[in-house]
Write a structure and sequence with these properties.
By secondary structure, this protein is of the alpha+beta class. The protein folds into 2 domains: 131 residues, Phosphorylase Kinase, domain 1 (2-Layer Sandwich), CATH 3.30.200; 232 residues, Aminoglycoside 3'-phosphotransferase, Chain: A, domain 2 (Alpha-Beta Complex), CATH 3.90.1200.10. 42% of the residues lie in helices and 14% in strands. It is built from 12 helices and 10 strands. The chain starts with 11 loop residues before the first helix and ends with a helix.
Length: 387
């Protein structure tokens, strides 16, 4: 069995499951929160605020809430790390809607997010919110992730897109993630990760795309140019093979859009810091595929064209600075080109999953338009058909 598809048997079962945790925000108690944040810390009262799910990483498969925490007096215990008791935390739960829960289960969203925080976060060299708890039920649906509330940060907006400065910081974070797991054997132990180029997933991706492409073209008729639809229709026959069959693998975020990034405002002339959220699509594969997904979808097309070469070079230099060897820029650029096809396919597949809405249609129209322009600019389809 090849390293790309090898499994050690340390999969979902190795994560462990839990029974005594809240399945939704209405089940959360002061005692449960306090035990995970500040044991014995004297949490007196909690207020709950439902957050926009498309702005905090819950996407189609979850619910995000902010818990405002009201602690007892100053004599109560402080956190074990010596910091201040948080005024609020973020809770992320499985969706309440049965259809969305089924989608999340089919795509292993809940397993992957809990798995990342339990097994991979500490060894992933990038900024993420502090995790107080990550619990998963035996049904692999009910789950909760309790996170630091970075309310001082600014969430990216996919319609507005990232600035060039924000993109530079985000690209460096991607390189940090990828370098920390580059060809590490330990990553192969986690067979709950998505592996886009595994043979079974390649077949499922091709079949899903054929179905999604037809539905997408009907639903979005008139909203995109004919060259975009021509590209979408032409891709189906070419998707029956892996996009990155011989590329070095690493940990992938999988959904690194700018609305899954939280930017900390720059202070004193320093560069802004970025925190990465939403690990429901975390996987293993070619790192430049993550890069293509981010640059193709999170920058306006004109801005991406202006800065693309420099941003990919920045990513490659950062990999090298962090110790990655034997991966030259030509190989990186080739993986990046082919990654634009994978990003377009994922955008089309995602667009037809949820119920139509004005916001969803606006977002996916923008994403597919950008990803299609990206693939066309890079002659990615021609490269894909060449092997």
């Amino acid at each position: 069995m090849s390293p790309r598809s090898r499994s050690s048997g340390k999969g979902v079962g190795a994560l462990g499951t839990s029974a005594g945790f809240p399945r939704g925000p209405e089940e959360v108690t002061c005692s449960w929160l306090a035990e995970r944040i500040v044991p014995g810390g004297g949490l007196q009262r909690v207020e709950t605020e439902l957050l926009e799910t498309d702005r905090l990483g819950a996407d189609q498969a979850g619910i995000c809430v902010r818990f405002e925490l009201h602690w007892n007096g100053a004599d109560a215990a402080a956190p074990q790390d010596g910091g201040a008791r948080p005024e609020s935390v973020i809770g992320k739960f499985a969706a309440a809607d049965e259809e969305r829960r089924a989608v999340g289960h089919e795509r292993s969203c809940y397993v992957r997010e809990v798995g990342f925080y339990r097994r991979l976060r500490e060894d992933s060299d990038l900024a993420t919110p502090r995790c107080y708890a990550a619990e998963l039920a035996e049904n692999e649906i009910d789950s909760v992730v309790l996170l630091e509330d970075l309310r001082h940060c600014i969430s990216g907006d996919v319609l507005t897109g990232c600035s060039a400065q924000e993109a530079r910081v985000a690209v460096e974070q991607l390189a940090a993630l990828h370098a920390s797991w580059w060809l590490r054997e330990e990553l192969l132990e986690h067979d709950w990760l998505s592996v886009p180029d595994d043979e079974p997933q390649v077949g499922r991706r091709a079949q899903r795309y054929r179905e999604s492409q037809e539905a997408f073209c009907q639903r979005f008729a008139g909203k995109l140019s004919e060259p975009v639809f021509e590209l979408l229709r032409s891709l189906s026959p070419a998707l029956g093979a892996p996009l990155h069959p011989d590329s070095p693998w690493t940990q992938l975020h999988g959904e690194d859009r700018c609305d899954n990034l939280l930017f900390e405002p720059a202070r004193g002339g320093s560069s802004p810091r970025v925190f990465v959220i939403d690990w429901q699509s975390s996987g293993r594969g070619a790192g430049a595929a993550d890069l293509a997904f981010f640059l193709g979808g999170s920058l306006r097309t004109s801005l991406r064209r202006k800065h693309e070469q420099g941003l990919v070079q920045r990513y490659h230099r950062e990999l090298q600075r962090r110790g990655v060897e034997g991966y030259d820029f030509d190989a990186c650029w080739r993986d990046y080109q082919l990654g634009s096809i994978g990003a377009l396919v994922r955008a089309v597949n995602s667009a037809v999953l949820g119920a139509p809405s004005e916001r969803a249609d606006e977002v996916f129209t923008a994403l597919v338009r950008r990803h299609a322009a990206h693939a066309l600019d890079l002659d990615a389809e021609q490269l894909l058909r060449s092997f």
